[in-house]
Structure formats: C-alpha cells, structure tokens
Design a protein that fits this description.
Helix content: 25-40%
Largest sheet: 8 strands, mixed
Number of helices: 10
CATH superfamily of the largest domain: P-loop containing nucleotide triphosphate hydrolases
Strand content: 15-25%
CATH architecture of the largest domain: 3-Layer(aba) Sandwich
Order of helices and strands: EEEEEHEEHEHHHEHEHEEHHHEE
Number of domains: 2
CATH class of the largest domain: Alpha Beta
Number of strands: 14
Radius of gyration: 21 Å
Bound molecules: adenosine-5'-triphosphate, iron/sulfur cluster, magnesium ion
C-alpha cells in the first residue's frame, strides 16, 4: 500500500459522450485548496481521434489505420485532477499528447482555456504550449546527459527568450519548490536518483508556470516509498501553482489516490468516467470491474472477488464491431456485436457515465467470456 496522506476524492462534475454536467458536490478537499467553479472547463475534447497509418513494403504503402484514440469526449475542469487508466496500449499516452497537440489529431475538437487549439500555429501555438506541459515516466532520462540541471530546467525559458540572468533566478526558485537545493543546478542528470530526476522533470514543466500538466506515468518507474513522496509533491505543487492535471497511470491505487475523477480507457475509447469515490464504490462497466478486482487493495464494504479477463486485447488496427470489449466481456450479448454502446449516464446520476448496454450488471465469479461474434 502506498504511504500517501489520506484525503477524500473530490467530486468535480463530469461529462462524457457529449453530456456536460455541473459540479454536484465539493466535499472536504484534503487540503488541496478550493475546488473548481461549476462548469469552469479548462480543457474540452470532442470526438478526438488519433490514427497512425500502418505502412508496408518498400514503397511504404498505407494498408490500414491503427486507431490509437478513437472518438474521445472529455471535459477537464480548472483545478481538478483527472486520472486516465487502462491496460498498456489502450491509448493513454496518445490521448495525452494529442490533447497537448504534441501529436496532430486525426479528427475532433480541442479547446483549451477557451481557445481552439487545432487552429493555432506558429507563435500562437508556442505561446499556448507554455501553459500546457507534460511530465513523463523519466522526463530527464531521455534528455541530453551533458546538460546541467540549470540548462535542462531553464531550456523552456530559453526557448521563450528569457534573458539568462532572469532564467537562472527562475530555475533556482523552481528547484527549491520541488525540494532540490541550489547546488543541484550545477550537476548532471546521472548524478541523481530516479525520484530526484522526477523532481527535475517537474521543475522543467513548472518553470514555465503552466495551467495544465499531463503527467504520463510519473511515478510508475519509482520504488513504492519514493512513489508516495513524488505523489505528495504533485498534490502540493498543484495547490501552490494552481494546476490542473491529467494523470496517466495503469495502477488504480495510485490513480484513485490522486484523482478527483477517473476515466477508464479500453482500446482507444473512454468506457467509464466518474468521481474516484464513485468509480471505486460502484463501477458500472465490466472492464472497470475487472480492473478493480485485480487491485490488491480491497474496497471497504465490498467482498473481494477477482474477475479474470480471458483472451488478448484485440488489435487497434481492426477493432471488434459494436462494443470493443465484447471479445473479452464475461456478460456480452448478441447486441454487443451489433450496436456500439454510448458513453452515457445510467442510474447513478449524470456525473457517472459508462459505455455498456448492460452497465452495472454484476459479474459472476468464474464467468467466462461468452462468444457472441
Ligand atoms: N508513433 C506511433 N506510431 C504508430 N503507432 C503508435 C505510435 N504511438 C503509439 N502507437 C500505438 O498506439 C496504441 C496506443 O499506444 P499508447 O502508447 O498511447 O498506449 P498507452 O495506453 O500509453 O500504453 P502504455 O501503458 O504501455 O504506456 C498502441 O497500439 C501503440 O502501439
Ligand atoms: S456492451 Fe456488451 S460487451 Fe460491451 S461491456 Fe457491455 S455487456 Fe460487455
Ligand atoms: Mg503510455
């Protein structure tokens, strides 16, 4: 279990499948400052797709499209943390990068702080990028090892043409805020541990004073004891810098701790979205139920039953018809192969959406996938 400070997940309003809802409740916030205003959307995605062409032969002819992200609707409210969870290859990183326009969307609309991100180019895009940063699993490990921390952290400011003397002041300030000494500025990345390198990665992002950070598996490569330190730092920095996070991870315990709301992804689509509390308490989608049941941490008040998914994740080049989860779903019915379920609310209120024709149906332990193809 992670040694993270206790806090209550905060309801922050939700939307999905084109449904926009208002904040329903903002209970105790665990010391993270005031919650977002109703309907104060910082980032809005509608029908976002990212396909990668599949090429073959000497002429590199396009023979298909890998549908990494296939029609995602998501509103992220100012000041909240949305967790994005799902198996490897389901499209989490691609979605995060596409929202920041580090990858060009194949289709869809992305609005950030009221601005249509897809229309931006040149100087405007550069200016916008300052407000939208990304932190990777090892944000520093992939960078030039010959650069000092001072230069690594100050790089964004240099790109934005801030003078050296002002840059150095800003770098030292941000290093202190992520818990590193001024002496660290003159050292090189390999001289730091994994946890310290993540602090440097955070400093690189924060020095530009962004509004929004995509944190892509920022603690996945760290020891459990270090994970909790970095998670707690992320929580503190969020408050200090007025940040909004999209927090990507495959570990539900981590996601549940840090997130106000959680989006569950499967094969390029969001299949369920709810407040963390609600998602853990009452998952509606069979895939979420399976993910939760694989979580070693039991949910208080619920009998722990393991739902084992059979079969491989289908190829995103040729996904199943209807519901993409149907080839592994223990409760699939013939309609699931024919009609794609929409991400809509069910009986739990408008803030909890799931894409399943039989949302909320309990899964019998030992139930196997019923072949409906
Ligand atoms: N640049 C690329 N070119 C072609 N295919 C890609 C590219 N980037 C990602 N993909 C494919 O898109 C799909 C989604 O990948 P993505 O990295 O977004 O998944 P993920 O959920 O972040 O996985 P992980 O948990 O392993 O990081 C995968 O099938 C992957 O192989
Ligand atoms: S729509 Fe059908 S196949 Fe898809 S998750 Fe629901 S029951 Fe399973
Ligand atoms: Mg990834």
């Amino acid at each position: 279990m992670l040694a993270v400070r206790a806090r209550s997940p905060r309801a922050a309003g939700a939307s999905g499948g084109g449904v926009t809802t208002e904040v329903s409740a903002i209970p105790e916030d665990g010391g993270q400052g005031p919650g977002p205003e109703p309907a104060d959307v910082l980032l809005s995605a509608r029908g976002v797709k990212k396909y990668f062409p599949v090429r073959t032969g000497i002429l590199k002819r396009t023979v298909g499209q890998l549908q990494a992200v296939d029609g995602v609707d998501l509103d992220i409210f100012r000041g909240e943390t949305v967790g994005l969870v799902g198996e490897s290859g389901c499209g989490k990183s691609t979605l995060g990068r596409t929202l920041l326009r580090l990858l060009e969307p194949t289709a869809g609309e992305i609005e950030f702080d009221g601005v249509d991100v897809r229309r931006l180019g040149g100087r405007d895009l550069k200016a916008m990028r300052r407000h939208m940063q990304i932190v990777f699993q090892d944000s520093v490990g992939s960078l030039d090892p010959r650069m000092t921390v001072r230069d690594l952290v100050g790089e964004g400011l240099r790109i934005h043409r801030l003078e050296r003397k002002h840059r150095d002041v800003a770098v030292l300030d941000v290093l202190e805020r992520v818990g590193l000494s001024a002496e660290a500025a003159g050292r090189y990345p390999h001289q730091f541990s994994g946890g310290q390198r993540q602090r440097i990665g955070l400093a690189r992002a924060l020095v530009l004073r962004p509004k929004f950070i995509v944190a892509d598996e920022p603690v996945s490569a760290l020891d459990v004891s270090i994970q909790s330190q970095v998670l707690n730092l992320l929580v503190e920095l969020k408050q200090e810098f007025d940040l909004t996070y999209l927090f990507v991870a495959h570990d539900l315990a981590v996601v549940g701790y840090i997130s106000d709301r959680v989006a569950v992804m499967y094969l390029g689509k969001v299949v369920e979205l709810a407040t963390s509390e609600e998602l853990f308490r009452r998952p509606l989608h069979p895939y979420t139920m399976a993910l939760l049941s694989a979580n070693p941490e039991p949910v208080p008040g619920r009998k722990h039953q393991r739902v084992v998914l059979t079969g491989d994740v289908p190829s995103p080049i040729d996904p199943p018809s209807g519901c993409r989860f149907r080839t592994r779903c223990p409760i699939a019915q013939p309609i699931c192969a024919e009609v794609e379920p929409l991400l809509v609310p069910h009986d739990e209120g408008p803030d909890h959406v799931a894409a399943c024709h039989f949302a909320g149906t309990p899964i019998q332990v030992g139930a196997q996938h019923a072949d409906v193809a």
